[in-house]
Amino acid sequence: MNLLIASDLHGDLAAAEQTFDRFTAEGADRLLWLGDLLYHGPRNDLPAGYAPKRVIALLNANRDKLFCVRGNCEAEVDQMVLDFPVLADYALLPVGQKVIFATHGHHHNISTPPALRAGDVLLHGHTHLYAAESFALPAGGEALYLNPGSVALPKGGNPATYMMLDTERGNYRILTMDGEEVLRGTI
């Protein structure tokens, strides 16, 4: 399965439309949102294309393509307007003998990782910075940390980015919203 993985939309309609354009261009099977779909939160500037009601309509129209985890900006009221689940704290994705623990990143991150085995993957957004790096597990061994960056409000001078993951081969690519590859690797 080819997954497009995106995070930190923050109600930006232009970024949502561009993400779905990339979904089509990449031939993705599903889109995994790593949270912060509708609201910008108190620490972020208001996105230029901020239009949460229109983002709701676009997301609901594509609900059969989506699965999500809850970000720190999601609330129960969001679930009342969205036609797909958005309040799960994490999702587990098996890739071969490894597990990808997909979450937003405000609770579980490389400083406070969930219980992972050596070789597993911690996938989260929240930082608005794309990343692919190994990190030490408290119980020993290393895991891989992946972050698709942010489709809206990127930080650290980074461009807006998303990730493509081939779950059968374990290959990932992080790309700009124009489809330019910035990182690639294998889980």
Overview of this protein structure:
By secondary structure, the chain is α/β, with parallel strands linked by helices. It has one domain: Purple Acid Phosphatase, chain A, domain 2 (4-Layer Sandwich), CATH 3.60.21. Helix content is 16%, strand content 32%. It contains three helices and eleven strands. The chain has helices at 13-26, 52-61, 76-81, and strands spanning 2-6, 30-33, 66-68, 90-95, 98-103, 121-124, 130-136, 142-148, 161-166, 171-176, 181-186. It has a six-stranded mixed sheet with strand order 3-2-1-9-10-11, covered by helices on one side. β4 and β5 (98-103) form a beta hairpin. The longest helix is centred in the N-terminal third of the chain and has 14 residues, at 13-26. The protein is globular and about 45 Å long. The two termini are 15 Å apart. The mean pLDDT is 96.
The CATH topology: Purple Acid Phosphatase, chain A, domain 2
Count of folded domains:
1
Shape: globular
C-alpha-based Rg, rounded: 15 Å
Summed over residues and divided by their number, the pLDDT gives a mean of: 96
**CATH homologous superfamily (4th level) name:** Metallo-dependent phosphatases
The termini sit apart by 15 Å
Low-confidence parts: none
Number of strands: 11
Q: Fraction of residues in helices? A: 10-25%
Strand content: 25-35%
Please summarize what this structure is.
The chain is α/β, with parallel strands linked by helices and 187 residues long. It has one domain (2-186): Purple Acid Phosphatase, chain A, domain 2 (4-Layer Sandwich), CATH 3.60.21.10. The protein has helices at residues 13-26, 52-61, 76-81; strands spanning 2-6, 30-33, 66-68, 90-95, 98-103, 121-124, 130-136, 142-148, 161-166, 171-176, 181-186.
